[in-house]
Design goal:
Layout: E1 5-6, E2 9-13, H1 20-33, E3 43-48, H2 54-67, E4 71-77, H3 80-89, E5 94-98, E6 107-113, H4 122-132, E7 149-151, H5 153-166, E8 175-179, H6 188-195, E9 199-203, H7 222-230, E10 235-239, E11 246-250, E12 255-256, H8 258-271, E13 279-283, H9 288-296, E14 300-304, H10 308-318, E15 322-324, E16 330-332, H11 341-355, H12 359-362, E17 371-377, H13 381-399, E18 402-407, E19 413-419, H14 423-439
Parallel strand pairs: 3-4, 3-5, 4-7, 8-9, 8-10, 13-14
Antiparallel strand pairs: 1-2, 2-6, 5-6, 10-11, 11-12, 15-16, 17-19, 18-19
Length: 441
C-alpha cells in the first residue's frame, strides 16, 4: 500500500483525506501519462456512485484530464464493473470509478483501471503518488489541444444489455429480492432482472447522497433477509455501494456468503466442463470448509492474499476461470476482469434454474467451520497488525484455531479472523486480540 492508494484505490474521508484538489491532480497526471497514444489524445471513461461528494470528484477529475489534453467520457452513476467492461470493450486508455464501495457516505475514493479494465499497475500507481506529492510539473494543454467532456450514458446502457445477454435462462415465475444499497446498482439491478422475467422486490433504491450502505446492501444483509421472508421470495441478492460484490439470501432467509457462492458456481462449471483445470482461487479469509468441500468434488482451491486484485492475479497465474472472496467479490474470467456483483447473481440464477434445484439442495454437501471476524479501530493499522502477530501465533496453538490478522486496505482498522472446529475458542481468540489491540491506542 502506498501513501494514498491502498488495496482498492485512493480512499478516505471526502473533503479531508481525499479532496477536489487530489482528484484534479489525478486527472492531470493520467491525462499526461496516457497522452501521445491513440493519435496523441488520452481517452478516459469515468463512472461514479451515489455519494454526495462523487460529483465534486467527478468534475475535478474531468477538469484535470481536459487540462492535460485528455477527453473524459462520463458514464454518470454506474457500477465499478461497468467501468471496467466499457474501458476494455470501447478501447479507452484508462477507466476511473469514483466510489468508496461499502464505506459510509462521507468516505469516497478513486479507483483506476488500465486499458484491460484491470486495476492499475503498481508502477503507474507509484508515478501518480509521486505527482500527488509534488514531484514534477505537467504542462497545461492550450488551444485545440485542450480536452473535452463527453456524455457517455450510452456506455452504461450497453453494459446493461451485456448483462442481460449473459443469461441463457428465463426467470419467469421466480420471485427475486434485490438490495442495491442505495448505490451504483439502484437502477441497473432491477432493469436486468425485470428484463429476464423475474418478479422483483427491491430495497436500497432511493439514494439521496448520504444514505449509501446505510442499513442496506451486502454489509447489512438483515434488510434483504427481512424482504425475502416477508414476501416469501425464492431468492435475494444484495450488492454494495459500487456493486462489485454480491451476497445471497436463500428462500428460507439464510445468508449465503461468497464462499458458498464459489462452491455452487465451481460445482456448476465443473459439471458443464467449463472449470479449467478443475481449480478455483479463494483468499486466506475463505472458510476452510470451502477448501475441504471442494476437494470432495475433485476441485482444487488455491488461496491468496485478500483483495480482488490478488484474486485476479492468482487466477491469471494458475489459469483458473473462477475466483473470489468470502465478502462477495467473485470473478468469472470468461466475462470480466474484475468482480461484478450482477454477473455473480446471474451465474447463481443460472446454476439454480439449469439444475432445477434450490440453494439448500446445491449446498447439501457443503460443510463450513465456525468462523468469527472482528474489526478494531486503531491509530496506526500497520503497526497494530505487526504488534498482534506474536499473540496470534500463541493463540493459534493454544486454542487450536486459524487466525488471520491484517491491516484493512480501505479503513483505519485491523481485521481479525478466527476459524476452528470450536466456536467458543474462536470467540476467545478474537476477544484477547481485541484487548491487546485496544491497549495499543
Amino acid at each position: 500500500m502506498g501513501k494514498y492508494f491502498g488495496t482498492d484505490g485512493f480512499r478516505g474521508e471526502a473533503g479531508v483525506t481525499i479532496t477536489a484538489e487530489h482528484a484534479f491532480k489525478v486527472g492531470r497526471i493520467l491525462g499526461h501519462m496516457y497522452g501521445g497514444r491513440n493519435g496523441g489524445r488520452c481517452r478516459a471513461v469515468i463512472g461514479k456512485d451515489t455519494r454526495l461528494s462523487s460529483y465534486m470528484l467527478e468534475y475535478s477529475l474531468c477538469a484535470g484530464l481536459t487540462a492535460s489534453g485528455a477527453d473524459a467520457y462520463i458514464l454518470h452513476v454506474t457500477t465499478t464493473p461497468s467501468v471496467s467492461y466499457i474501458t476494455r470493450c470501447d478501447g479507452f486508455d484508462c477507466g476511473i470509478m469514483i466510489s468508496a464501495s461499502h464505506n459510509p457516505y462521507f468516505d469516497n475514493g478513486i479507483k483506476i483501471m488500465n486499458a484491460n479494465g484491470e486495476k492499475l499497475e503498481e508502477s503507474k500507481i507509484r508515478e501518480i503518488e509521486k505527482y500527488l506529492d509534488g514531484g514534477g510539473e505537467i504542462p497545461f494543454a492550450s488551444g485545440g489541444a485542450i480536452g473535452r467532456t463527453v456524455d457517455y450514458v450510452s456506455g452504461r446502457n450497453r453494459y446493461i444489455g451485456h448483462l442481460i445477454s449473459l443469461s441463457t435462462c428465463s426467470y419467469k415465475g421466480l420471485r427475486v429480492g434485490l438490495d442495491a444499497a442505495n448505490g451504483s446498482a439502484w437502477q441497473i439491478a432491477r432493469s436486468v432482472f425485470d428484463a429476464l422475467g423475474a418478479k422483483t422486490y427491491v430495497v436500497g433504491v432511493s439514494p439521496n447522497g448520504t444514505n449509501v450502505n446505510d442499513g442496506v446492501g451486502s454489509t447489512h444483509i438483515e434488510r434483504l433477509v427481512e424482504l425475502v421472508k416477508n414476501n416469501s421470495l425464492d431468492i435475494g441478492f444484495a450488492f454494495d455501494g459500487d456493486a462489485d460484490r454480491c451476497i445471497c439470501v436463500d428462500g428460507r432467509g439464510e445468508v449465503i456468503t461468497g464462499d458458498e457462492i464459489l462452491y455452487i458456481c465451481a460445482d456448476y462449471l465443473k459439471k458443464r466442463g467449463e472449470l479449467a483445470g478443475n481449480k478455483i482461487v479463494c483468499t486466506v479469509l475463505s472458510n476452510g470448509g470451502l477448501i475441504k468441500s471442494l476437494d470432495r468434488l475433485g476441485i482444487e482451491c488455491a488461496a491468496c492474499d485478500v483483495g480482488d486484485k490478488n484474486v485476479c492475479d492468482e487466477m491469471a497465474k494458475t489459469g483458473a476461470v473462477l475466483g473470489g472472496e468470502r465478502s462477495g467479490h467473485v470473478v468469472f474470467s470468461k466475462y470480466e476482469s474484475t468482480g461484478d456483483g450482477l454477473v455473480t447473481a446471474i451465474m447463481v440464477m443460472e446454476a439454480l434454474i439449469e439444475q432445477k434445484k434450490t440453494i439448500p439442495q446445491l449446498l447439501k454437501d457443503y460443510k463450513s467451520f465456525p468462523q468469527v471476524s472482528v474489526n478494531i479501530a486503531v491509530k496506526n493499522k500497520l503497526a497494530a497488525a505487526r504488534a498482534l502477530l506474536n499473540d496470534a501465533e500463541r493463540l493459534s496453538q493454544s486454542l487450536d484455531v486459524r487466525l488471520v490478522v491484517r491491516p484493512s486496505g480501505t479503513e483505519q482498522v485491523v481485521r481479525i479472523m478466527a476459524e476452528g472446529e470450536n466456536y467458543e475458542n474462536c470467540i476467545a481468540a478474537c476477544a484477547e486480540l481485541r484487548k491487546k489491540a485496544e491497549s495499543l491506542k
